[in-house]
Design goal:
With 420 residues, the protein is α+β, with helices and mostly antiparallel strands. The protein is 47% helix and 20% strand. Strand 10 and strand 11 form a beta hairpin.
Length: 420
């Protein structure tokens, strides 16, 4: 017997190592219960999980289980069972004569298909409360205190694996729920965008027609309709751009483009907006460099427009914006630097997320739905490029993106395990 006691620490260490190699709860419980039988010299063992709804125990796993066993039907009452006693008293119990002890439930004899003569049971405690019970049965001689200590150690391992299983199940469930919510969100966006296009087109068409017919006194009202309808059209197009990329419906039609000319054109389109805000909009292009790159020019123009629109919007009166283009051996880099209000450090990692808005008070002041930068991000990634932002609150921001000189084949989107 002394030799067996000496081997217990080594066997427990072996069990602990084996648990890290198993991938499911049943396999881990099988490892623990097999060790419990071996180390206590018992005939069999079981792990019983308490059910708060039914106020009884379900045999989670037992050494006598076969593949075709109906495990879900094996239930043991809270009152009148060893599992219930150790659960309620939070302490280990040894029953030497189970046949004549009211604390033993005969349901375990029926479930096991054999008479239970003696029982050693201990609670499984997780996060400070009992959640299950561990039991071993039918040792030839009385259970010593050493067996009780061994079973308590194994109960601690059981608590660990059950808690780990619950966490893994929770993560998987949350991931599936996130996927479903993301699917519903994308479906809603796709349907809504489609349904809004027709009435919005009619509003714009008729408003433009009325503008030509109405007298000058109504021009301001009609212009307001056209201006806001155009804004709605831009929002729908932004939503559609992101949705098409995520569902694989977006197409890139690359051709050899002078990015220097794209920068010139986009800056020219924002000149009036910058002038109204008294913002100095500058271009910093390398002389004689056209910045040739194979891209879809329209999509890259959208990228730069969305970045520049943010820069002008968040730069105060008298500020400065510099749009820079640089030619590198394998890629072209474009950056937009402003000395505006900047982005808080806590918001910076999320500025390219769809619908993310930096600081409620800034959104109310400057407007926007948090779509422009997410659209820019997907457009750049469609070309195999990368986009990022550097900023210091109160001092300004630099938004940069790079595009490979040679076109990159579209890459399949990879999904993070914790994303939607």
């Amino acid at each position: 017997m002394a030799t067996d006691q000496e081997n217990i620490p080594a066997r427990l260490l072996e069990v602990t190592r084996a648990l890290s190699l198993e991938t499911d709860l049943e396999a881990r419980l099988r490892t623990i219960l097999s060790a419990a039988v071996e180390l206590t010299g018992s005939e069999s063992a079981s792990a019983l999980e308490y059910n708060d709804a039914s106020l009884n125990f379900r045999v989670k796993f037992a050494t006598w289980f076969k593949r075709d066993t109906n495990k879900t039907g094996l239930e043991v009452p809270l009152n009148g069972s060893v599992a219930g006693w150790v659960f309620l008293n939070r302490t280990t119990l040894i029953v030497e004569d189970a046949r004549n002890d009211a604390r033993h439930s005969k349901k375990m004899d029926v479930a096991m298909g054999a008479e239970i003569r003696s029982v050693l049971g201990t609670p499984v405690i997780s996060n400070g409360r009992p959640v299950a019970a561990l039991e071993v049965y039918n040792k030839r001689e009385p259970y010593p205190d050493g067996d009780a200590r061994t079973l308590e150690i194994l109960a601690g391992l059981t608590a660990f694996v059950m808690r780990n299983d619950a966490l893994e199940s929770g993560i998987l469930s949350a991931r599936e729920e996130t996927r479903e919510l993301d699917r519903l969100k994308n479906e809603f966006i796709a349907i809504t965008s489609h349904e809004l296009r027709t009435p919005l087109g009619l509003i714009l068409g008729h408003s433009t027609f009325l503008k030509e017919l109405l007298v000058e006194s109504y021009a301001e009202q009609v212009d307001a309709i056209i201006r806001n309808a155009t804004r709605l059209k831009e929002i729908i197009e932004s939503l559609t751009s992101v949705d098409n990329y995520q569902t694989g419906g977006a197409l890139v039609r690359p051709r050899k483009v002078s990015l220097a000319r794209v920068i010139e054109d986009v800056c020219a389109s924002f000149a009036s907006m910058a002038e109204k805000k008294n913002v100095d909009l500058k271009k910093a292009l390398q002389p004689g460099r056209e910045l040739w790159v194979d891209v879809d020019a329209d999509k890259i123009a959208i990228v730069l427009s969305n970045i520049l629109k943010n820069a002008v919007g968040f730069t105060e009166d008298g500020g400065e914006i510099v749009v820079r283009g640089e030619q590198h051996p394998d890629y072209v880099k474009v950056s937009v630097k402003d000395n505006g209000i900047g982005i808080p450090a806590k918001d910076l990692p999320f500025v390219f997320d769809r619908f993310y808005q930096v600081e409620d008070h800034l959104t109310r002041r400057h407007g926007g739905m948090g779509l422009g930068l997410s659209v820019a991000k997907v457009m750049v990634e469609m070309h195999g490029g990368r986009i990022w932002a550097d900023s210091e609150e109160g001092k300004g921001s630099i938004f940069s993106f790079i595009l490979p000189v040679q076109p990159v084949p579209p890459q399949p989107k990879t999904e993070s395990p914790f994303s939607g």
